[in-house]
Amino acid sequence: MKTWLGRIRKGYGRKLVSLHTWNGWIVLVLALTGLILISGLWRGVLGEVRVWIKWAHIVVGIASIVPVIYYLLLAAKHWKQLRSKSWQRVNVLIVLFLLLGWFGSGLVLWQFKWFGPANANMALVIHDVLTWVGLPYIIYHSITRLKWLKEPAKLTVRSNKGTPDSDTSLHPAANPQAVYTRRAFIKLTIGAGLAITLGPSFLQWVGRTFSGGSTNLEYLIENDANRMVPPPQPLPASAPPIGGGSQGNFRVYTVTPIPSFSNADWSFTVDGLVDQPLRFNWEAFLKLPRVAEVSDFHCVTGWSVYKNTWEGVPLKALLAQAGVRTEARTVKFYSGDGVYTDSLSMEQVADMDDVLVAVMHDGQPIPSDLGGPVKLIVPQMYAYKSVKWLNRIELIDGDHDGYWIVRGYAKDAWVTRS
Q1: Where do the CATH 3.90.420.10 domains begin and end in the chain?
Q2: Which pLDDT score, from 0 to 100, does residue 352 have?
Q3: Computed over its alpha carbons, how large is the radius of gyration of the chain?
Q4: pTM of the entire structure?
Q5: How much is the pLDDT for 172?
Q6: CA distance linking residue 134 with residue 90, whole number of Å
């Protein structure tokens, strides 16, 4: 009977060890792929590979629920074994909370079109909070549970007379002169190292996320790399903004280094299948009639900025001025970074009256980090259609797949349409 019970306990213990190992590998893969996905550097370097990494992150994230469900089947027995170990019970609850929170918020981000922009925006904040708080906790928990750290520590301390007592344990219960065991000291050092390393970045993220947007935009405007003069003068509807000011924070994503422009090296062109090609310098471009519009800005990665007041030249007005030939099928947009492009079909352009070639946001020139001095705004589509640093529009008779389209993104980027 004792032998049989021993085998059961041993098998149960192996299951928990295996479960712990699988959880560790899953968190590691999710952490590495997640850090790559949010990094601006890797967006440009990896190109199409980034889409595969995104899907790997999603698949592993979905798979993360399997160990949780498996543990829940064993939880009653495990919980009974921990009845005298309060801290281990707390640890189990924390880890389960983190895993379920990551899974739930990740599911919303994966199916963002079904849940809608507002829920996706909240899910992204939750996902970020859990990552900033949970990842350091799991790293700390994993390192401090290593076998070498659990071994008893015996070190030499000095007596009051200054002579070493070589067999005195550093455990406080064994030696009142000791303050820390080796294990406690190393755990404290690891915790302090994680706090010093990640603390400033976490506080910076909190400031960006919960500041209401003003601090973030003020910083971008103050550090604008563009040197365009004179600055555009806002319409009365833009200052103060008719939308009341944007709500939320932009996350700056780019596939190239952020370019900067001055009057000497900037121009704007409308050409291709048009009756009258157009070319503007900065001063001439500012003389074009502008309108102000309020719209929400949705990124395909899950975040949104609401009630933006954009001011600019309607795309339809520019195309009408150039005169579109009947054989034109696609409007192709070029970024001033020399790499990024995207497009809209003529049918899509005809169906949308709110597409702007914008020069102002909330009554201020659009900063370089957000795609200024001129940025395309397509409110009804996800932000990868809103080309930054726009400096050329070409009418073509064929189709065109833009930068992210050839890398796996949907060609029709509607926010709410099927």
Answers
A1: 228-396
A2: 95
A3: 29
A4: 0.70
A5: 44
A6: 14
H or E element in which residue 127 lies: helix 117-144
Q: In order along the chain (418 residues), what is the average pLDDT of each group of 10 residues?
A: 45 71 81 76 66 86 88 84 83 87 89 78 85 76 56 45 44 45 52 52 51 62 91 94 88 86 97 98 97 92 88 98 97 96 96 97 95 97 96 97 88 78
Q: Is 140 exposed, middle or buried (0-12, 13-18, 19+ CB in 10 A)?
A: middle
Q: Which DSSP category does 379 fall into?
A: T
Alpha helices per DSSP H over 154-269? 182-210, 214-222
Report the C-alpha gap between 67 and 19 in whole angstroms. Answer: 6
- pLDDT at residue 213 in the model: 46
Alpha helices in 211-312 (DSSP H): 214-222, 282-286
Q: How far apart are CA 187 and CA 320, in angstroms?
A: 68
Q: Which residue stretches of 39-116 are H helix? A: 40-46, 49-63, 65-81, 86-110, 112-115
112 alpha carbon, distance to own chain's centre: 14
What is the 8-class DSSP label of residue 385?
G
Which three-class secondary structure state does DSSP give residue 163? coil
State both tokens at 90: 């707390």
Q: Give, as one character, the DSSP assignment of residue 160.
A: T
Measured from the Cβ of residue 196, the count of other Cβ atoms closer than 10 Å reads: 9
**What is the per-residue DSSP string for 325-378?**
-TT--EEEEEETTSS-EEEEEHHHHHH-S--EEEEEETTEEPPGGGT-SSEEE-
Which of the following CATH numbers is that of domain 228-396: 3.75.10.10, 1.10.260.40, 3.90.420.10, 3.40.50.12500? 3.90.420.10
Residue 201 structure tokens: 């970045």
